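Give me structure tokens for this 282-residue protein.
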Amino acid sequence: MRLTPSYGPEPLLELDGDPFAVVEPTVRQRRRLVATLASFGDAEWEHPSRCAGWTTRDVVVHLDTTNSFWAASIQAGTQGQPTRFLTDFDPVASPAQHVAAAGERHHAEVFERFAESTEAFAAIAASLTPQEVADAVAEAPPGHISVSGVLHHALWDAWIHERDILLPLGTEPVVEPDEVAASLRYAAALGPALALTRGQHRRTRLTVRATDPAVRFDVVVDDRVEVHTVESSGPATDLELTGDAVELLEALSIRLPLPPSAPAEWVRMRDGLAVTFDSPPS
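Here you go.
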């Protein structure tokens, strides 16, 4: 299914908290993956990943492409000219086409390109000011959102793909609390946001209460999606999703089923992401 991004001065998705806090974990996660891949031999590079039909090499080709996109998006956004590249983007077909276009590129070249694009992206992230991260608007799949929101999407996507590579190899990925918290907050908002871009308006307020790390927030869905931190002692909504933070993040990213206790409204919200990626509904 092609994306239908929402473009304009009013972002469709907004996360509270310190907008600049996402910069460090976004760069750290990518550099960690580069360091991990540096030790891989032929068997690891050709091993199937969790992404159907893709090997480790294919996932890294995809991540190299996303590095370049995020860099271009953020640079254009901070210059006051946010891109509109994603109007014809199909999140299933388009990445597959990019991977196929790489042909039989040797994994050494794939690694070199990914390492270079990672450092180029990291350099752009390091050059950002707190004001640019908070106030500049750039492009991501939901449309024009803050640069902080774009970095959240970039972190979430690469964090999930890191696990797509490592778990099939029997390697337990590193779990950094700030990476998990930022990715979980974004993943919980992404499904509802993408549903809104398709004209599927559903006014609701949902709560996530996760452990390890402890994260609690509300997702408010109206004519846009907002994520608000909730104090641990504050009241929850009736639509509360609870569980281990990593497992909830995997579930909201369509890698695991949602917990049996998940309210039906959360299942519908998560399926906003599943529809976009042509995944079976819950």
